[in-house]
Structures are given as C-alpha cells and as structure tokens.
Amino acid sequence: WGWAPVITPPLTRGGGGAGAGAAPTAAGTLNGLPEWLDFLQIHNLPGETLPIPVWIIVLCALVMAAGTAAGGWRIIKTMGHNVVRLHPINGFMAETSGAVVIFLASVMGIPVSTTHVISSSIMGVGAAKRFNAVRWTVVERMVWAWVFTLPITAVISWLIAKGLLAL
User: Fold this and answer.
1) Cα–Cα distances in Å, from 110 out to 67, 75, 102, 106, 131?
2) pTM: predicted TM-score of the whole model, two decimal places
3) Distance between CA atoms of residues 28 and 52, nearest Å
4) Which residues are within 8 A (CB) of 87 and not within 5 positions of it... i.e. 6 or more apart?
5) Looking at the predicted structure, is the pLDDT value of residue 25 above 60?
6) Could you report the per-residue pLDDT of 79-135, keeping only the tens digit for each?
7) pLDDT above 90: percentage of residues in the chain
8) Residue 95 near residue 5 (C-beta atoms within 8 A)
9) 93: left (phi over 0), alpha (psi -120 to 50) or beta
10) Helix/strand/coil (H, E, C) string of 23-68?
11) How far apart are CA 135 and CA 29, in angstroms?
C-alpha cells in the first residue's frame, strides 16, 4: 500500500475533495472591500447573483496552497504521528473517506471544514485499528483550539476594526 498515498492527494486536494468549497468561501469574503480595492469586488444588479470570477477563486486556492506548503508539515506530523501512528494503508483510507465526505458535502452545498473532516477521518481510522490507539489527549487539545479559534479571531478582528476606525 506504499503507492496509495501517491494517488490520494490529487483526489483529496485537487479533484474536488479538500478545499472544494474553501477557495470560493474565501473569495466570497472579498465582497464589501474598501473603494481602493474596487477591482476585487463583484458588482451585480439588485436581485441578481453573479458567480465569483475564476481568477479570484484560483488566487485564493494558490494562497491557501502556499500556506499549506509552508506549515503543512507540522500538521501532518501531528496528525500522522502524535494523534495516531499511521501506516500507508491508514493514510489512504483516511484521505479517501475524507475526500468522499467533503465531495458529497460540497455537492449538497453543505459547508464543512476540511481540517475537521480529515482530522476526524484520521481519528476514525485510528479508532478502527484500536480505540486506545488514538491519543485522545492530543485530540482534546485540538478540539479546544477549534472551539477557541472563532471567539479569539472575533475579538482580534473587533480590535483591528476599532483601531482602523479610530484613524
């Protein structure tokens, strides 16, 4: 099964799996930008919905890929060694099941977090081997990080907005 991890990344990352909804979601936040960034905004008539231009989706996907390339090794190390010890067959099954879940959610229009789906897939593969093969203390720290991410970023955003409005 050593060859399996070679074929799954294109399925999970490029073929409509991981990130299938991430780039359009990130691109959608480009609406409502300041006037000097008008070239990024999408203008439409009232009541009309226009798709996000492809170049914006591609740009967002490239930026996300660069971030993954820059710091992804730490995440891979944590997930593949600290949460549960993965072998090639386990990685293949986790990526494949994660890709299926993300693809189906994207087709149905359900927003899901790629990180949460892949992490859950890895935990599921580990638990299928042996429930105590998963280091649940590491999982607990990850879940707390997920829980606190939203309120912490909201406070940081509020502080930045207040600071900019004060200028």
Assistant:
1) 24, 25, 9, 6, 29
2) 0.61
3) 7
4) 1
5) no
6) 777 888 888 888 888 888 888 888 888 888 788 888 888 889 999 999 998 999 999
7) 16
8) yes
9) alpha
10) HHHHHHCCCCCCHHHHHHCCCCCCCCCCCCCHHHHHHHHHHHHHHH
11) 36
- Tracing tokens 């997920």 back to the chain, one arrives at 146
Length of the chain: 167
Residue among 21, 46, 44 at smallest CA distance from 112: 21
